[in-house]
Description:
Strand content: 25-35%
CATH topology: Aminopeptidase
Helix content: 25-40%
CATH class: Alpha Beta
Radius of gyration: 15 Å
CATH architecture: 3-Layer(aba) Sandwich
Strand order of the largest sheet: 1-2-3-4-5
CATH superfamily: Gcn5-related N-acetyltransferase (GNAT)
Number of domains: 1
Distance between the termini: 37 Å
Amino acid sequence: xxxxxxxxxxxxxxxxxxxxxxxxxxxxxxxxxxxxxxxxxxxxxxxxxxxxxxxxxxxxxxxxxxxxxxxxxxxxxxxxxxxxxxxxxxxxxxxxxxxxxxxxxxxxxxxxxxxxxxxxxxxxxxxxxxxxxxxxxxxxxxxxxxxxx
Length: 149
């Protein structure tokens, strides 16, 4: 498996992965061609040096994706926080170790970029994901809250 920065031609495969589960299918608009908003967002991500939209590729096929963001802030004496979002492994490849490889890559990237903490959120409707994150060493130390607009 190769992990690399996403490129424009990967966007359709990334959106397919994001839409390929119960929750994602309700919020994504996967079609061919994709709505332009996905490409517009990709350009913003690609231009931001604190954003790393990555894909996992096997034999030329995109089988996983995640976004790793770096957030500089004043807390922790001007520390750096890393945030994981939009993790997906292709449904027929889950449970094969791809997720562990993807997370190992992100953990190492966060450390090498000077982050003092790596965090993520997960929907409470994803108990398998929660167990996986705990297996990878993440602890449920905080209660998260959101407002959707």
